[in-house]
Amino acid sequence: MSDALRQFKSDIFQGLAHPTRIAIVELLRAGELPAGKLIEKLELEQANASQHLAVLRAKQIVVSRKAGNQVYYSIRDRALLEVLDILRRYFYAQLSSTVNMLQEVANERPQSRLKAH
Amino acid sequence: MSDALRQFKSDIFQGLAHPTRIAIVELLRAGELPAGKLIEKLELEQANASQHLAVLRAKQIVVSRKAGNQVYYSIRDRALLEVLDILRRYFYAQLSSTVNMLQEVANERPQSRLKAH
DNA sequence: TTACTATATTCGATATTTAGAATATATTAA
DNA sequence: TTAATATATTCTAAATATCGAATATAGTAA
């Protein structure tokens, strides 16, 4: 794999490496929204939201379009939503494997099920 | 979406948000490798490699197993490789849209095709 | 023009990430 | 035991990311 491709991938990951930016992208899943709506729904400081949006723009994750007073944001390529979907399944898979593991531990030692330790 | 899921996703992204770590994950695509092999193939400083591996472990992206003198690393869940595949397609899609854009610009102004400006 | 609204940028403080040097630990070999 | 090998951790300095406060800009309304 080329260095350029690696750099590109790590830029995308870096762009998504913050819970607020994940939240923004998830809100844009249904379609474009003006910055103000994002700020309102996520209860963010205006400056903070604007900074996160600047990161998402810089990493080419979103695009913006100005309409009158407002700036509408949307996902640049919906392929990225697939990435989030894969991670959701991954998250739940790990969750259930953790639950299973805890259950196995509990079943192997039923006498201690109610004990705190 | 829950805060936990958002945090989980951004942790994964953060784990992958460095070209060296992308390179490590790509090398592990074919199967497990000892740390030394990764260091050799990527021509990394030993300490630097070890730090990146620690990040990948902390974010649960890889797992390690010790065998004698060596520590073998592997991808914890191959679903993550799908994520990288999606990004590769995304990368080439963006590349070709950039090329198309440049071609359109060139075609719209054929007289300036060879001019520097 | 002035005032208002929506958004972006800059600034300063703090926290996190990164690389490399040095050191530590664990395993095997002698 | 001691030496050698493989890997991890700690430390320091530099770079980067984050937040909130303040300020700037662009568009609209009066």
Mean pLDDT value of chain A: 87
What is the approximate shape of chain A? extended
The helix-strand sequence of chain A is: HHEHHEEH
Work out the helix count of chain A. 5
Instruction: Please report which band the strand proportion of chain A falls in: under 5%, 5-15%, 15-25%, 25-35%, 35-45% or over 45%.
Output: 5-15%
CATH fold group of the largest domain in chain A: Arc Repressor Mutant, subunit A
What portion of residues of chain A is helical? 55-70%
User: Terminal Cα separation of chain A, in Å?
Assistant: 49 Å
Number of domains of chain A: 2
**Assembly of the depicted chains:** homodimer
Q: Which ranges of chain A are low-confidence, i.e. pLDDT below 50, for 5 or more consecutive residues?
A: 112-117
State the secondary-structure class of chain A.
mainly alpha
Which SSEs are present, and which pair or pack?
The structure is a homodimer of 117-residue chains.
Chain A: H1 3-15, H2 19-27, E1 33-34, H3 35-42, H4 46-58, E2 62-67, E3 70-75, H5 79-108
Antiparallel strand pairs in A: 1-3, 2-3
Helix pairs in contact in A: 3-4
Chain A binds a DNA duplex (30 and 30 nucleotides) through residues 18, 34-36, 39, 45-55, 66, 68-71.
